[in-house]
């Protein structure tokens, strides 16, 4: 498996990965040409040194993705934190330990960059994902809240 920064031509595959579950299917558009917003978001991520959209390749095919965002802050004595978002593994590759390798890799990237904390959120409906993250040492220490502005 190869971990690499996503390229513009990976955007359709990443969007399909994000849409390939019950929750993602309600948020993402995969029919026809992709809306420009996906490419604008990709370009913003690519320009920002505190953001990385990473894909995982196996045999030349993209089988997973995740976004890493680094946030400097005054908490933790000025410590840097990493937020992990959009973690997906292709349905054809689930159950093979790829998600575990992806998160282990992300945690090592956080350590290498000097982060004090790695955080993520998972939808409460994703009970399997919550168990998975807990098996990696994550704790549900906070109540996450969102405000949908659409």
Automatic annotation (TrEMBL):
Annotated ranges, domain N-acetyltransferase: 1-150
TM spans (from-to): none
PROSITE patterns named among the record's database cross-references: GNAT
Record-linked Pfam families: Acetyltransf_1 (PF00583)
Domain of life where this protein originates: Bacteria
GO terms for MF: acyltransferase activity, transferring groups other than amino-acyl groups
Cross-referenced InterPro entries: Acyl_CoA_acyltransferase (IPR016181), Bact_Acetyltransf (IPR050832), GNAT_dom (IPR000182)
Keywords: Acyltransferase, Transferase
Cited PANTHER family: AMINOALKYLPHOSPHONATE N-ACETYLTRANSFERASE-RELATED, AMINOALKYLPHOSPHONATE N-ACETYLTRANSFERASE-RELATED-RELATED
Protein name, entry field: GNAT family N-acetyltransferase
């Amino acid at each position: 498996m190869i971990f690499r920064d996503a390229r513009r031509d990976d955007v359709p595959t990443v969007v399909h990965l994000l849409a390939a579950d019950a929750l993602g299917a309600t948020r993402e558009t995969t029919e026809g040409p992709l809306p420009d917003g996906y490419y604008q978001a990709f370009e913003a991520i690519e320009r920002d040194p505190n953001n990385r959209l990473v894909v995982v390749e196996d045999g030349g095919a993209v089988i997973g993705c995740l976004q890493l965002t680094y946030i400097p802050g005054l908490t933790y004595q000025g410590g840097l934190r990493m937020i992990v978002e959009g973690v997906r593994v292709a349905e054809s590759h689930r159950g093979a330990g790829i998600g575990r390798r992806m998160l282990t890799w992300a945690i090592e990237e956080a350590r290498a960059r000097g982060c004090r904390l790695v955080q993520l959120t998972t939808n409460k409906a994703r009970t399997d994902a919550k168990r998975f993250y807990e098996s990696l040492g994550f704790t549900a220490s906070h109540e996450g809240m969102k405000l949908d502005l659409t």
